[in-house]
Amino acid sequence: MKLNTVKLILKTDKTVVEGANKVRGYIGNTFKDYPLLHNHYGNDNHLLTYPLVQYKIIDGNVLILGIEEGGDVLKEISSDLDVLKLTKNYNITEKILSEKEVDVKPSSEEKHYKFVTPWLGLNQKNYSKYNELYGWKDKKNFLNNILVGNLLSMSKGLGIIVNKRLHVKSHFESQQVKYKSVIFNGFVGEFKVHYDIPDFFGLGKGVSHGFGTVCEIK
User: Fold this and answer.
1) For residue 48, what are the contacts with CB-CB under 8 A and spacing of at least 6?
2) What is the pTM of this model?
3) Contact 193, 166 (CB under 8 A)
4) Rounded distance between C-alpha atoms, residue 77 and residue 195, angstroms
């Protein structure tokens, strides 16, 4: 399925050392009239779908990905962004806006990816199940199945039909991360799957906060 994406990179006067959640909070509060930026409607209702605006910190720079309508919103607000008021103030020195049509779909060819930000594959329920598994092989298969589920959830949220069974091959390492003030077991590493995932799309929990960001290894 062809999707239009917009990537907005914000270069600042100093390296951003805070989490993408802080950027999301600031931009969401600054532009409250755009629900896609903060994923809330009125009465504290959440948008329960794949986030169309995703905030990431990559190499100390802010990268915001907009998908379809999310991209339109980024184009509308980008000219009004001059500073990021986080714990510290970061003056924006350069804005790089690029637009690209991407293909998101199951692929006949196996693709090789890496997580450039930690992947939150385990929630409270499956974390207990994961810890009950003894062998590394069982744990790997468990994570692989969760990742397939994440891909299917993304596909459903974007209206993409998956008419083939997906299998993941992976090599992950555990890494503790903080998400909404709670410590989670995240994972970094590489995986292979027959699916076209565009660079900087997120998978798993906390996607709009910058977790689970994927890039292809060419």
Assistant:
1) none
2) 0.93
3) yes
4) 32
What digits encode the pLDDT tens for the residues 77-110?
Answer: 999 999 999 999 999 999 999 999 999 999 999 9
Q: H or E element: which one contains 62?
A: strand 61-67
Rounded to an integer, what distance in angstroms lies between the CA atom of residue 189 and that of residue 116?
8
Residue 128 identity (one-letter amino acid): S
List Cβ neighbours of 133 (8 Å cut-off, separation of 6 or more).
139, 142
Which string of b and e fits 96-133 if b means at least 16 CB within 10 Å?
ebeeeebebbbeeeebebebbbbbbbbeeeeeeebeee
| Residue that has been written with the tokens 């998978």 in this structure | 203
Both tokens of residue 126? 């499956």
Residue 71 three-state SS: helix
Q: Tell me the helices (H) and strands (E) count for the chain, helix number first.
A: 5, 9
Q: Are strands 2-12 and 89-103 parallel, antiparallel or unpaired?
A: antiparallel
Q: CA–CA separation, 178 vs 158, rounded Å?
A: 27
Per-residue pLDDT band at 43 (split at 50, 70, 90): very low
What b-and-e string marks burial along 59-86, b requiring 16 or more CB atoms within 10 Å of the CB?
eeebbbbbbeebbebbeebbeebeebeb
Say which residues have a Cβ less than 8 Å from residue 59's Cβ, sequence separation at least 6.
none
Q: What is the DSSP string of 92-156?
A: EEEEEEEEEEEE-EEEEEEEEEEEEEEEB---HHHHHHHHH--SHHHHHHHHHHHHHHHHHHHHH
